[in-house]
Amino acid sequence: MVTNELLIIIGPPLVAGLLIAITHAPLGIEVLKRGIIFIDLAIAQIAGLGLIAAEILLHEPPMLIVQLAALGGAVLAGLFFRQIESKNAKHQEAVIGVGFIFAASLTILILADHPFAGEKTTHLLSGQILFVSWADVLYHVPVYLFTLTMWFLFPWSRRGVWFYLLFALAITSSVQLVGVYVVFASLILPALSAVNFSNSVIYAWACGILSILLAMLVSVLSDLPTGPFIVITYVITALLMFSLSKKVKSN
User: I want to staple 233 with a disulfide (CB 3.0 to 4.6 A). Which of 92, 210, 215, 218 is the partner?
Assistant: First the structure.
């Protein structure tokens, strides 16, 4: 009985975490290849700004409006960063960093007088994955399936403006489920762990899946927040895999 209840509780967050890990791995490899590391943080923060702005500035807005605000912000940011890439690629990473701190500062200002500002900020940054329900998973799973389908069946979606649009779409869902920190960790750390392997996507997937499983296990056993554990297990797993890859390569 206890086992069944536990599975009911951790089932949705586990599936959500695995979906994010599987979807983010190839996106993260592309981000690393392009050298635009902080685009993850920037677009996630801008999508989060859209969420917060819609919830706070509008009075009990419909869910569709909140989603459109988040996606709209992420898409506009993606299009802007694409323009910077095409016209001034040398300074693109600097502009992306400015975009992140600008969105973060606006978020703080919007929440300044809100009675639950601390809770909403923590939710945006660290997420509340254990509160994810099956309804949340079903709501967002089409986004991840669409992203993976486009990425692997239509290679043109990885180029030009299409990459930024696809990236913005996936990140908008992910930031709502797991927060900004996990979004960044799940994109960059698996990609870093797999840089020395020939089939990098497979190893990035392995890093992400193992990290999610370990984080869920430790979080449930310790009864501590899952988001920070996900980031920590991503770091540890990525370091171990990177060290292993170095040894394999040297041999």
Answer: 215
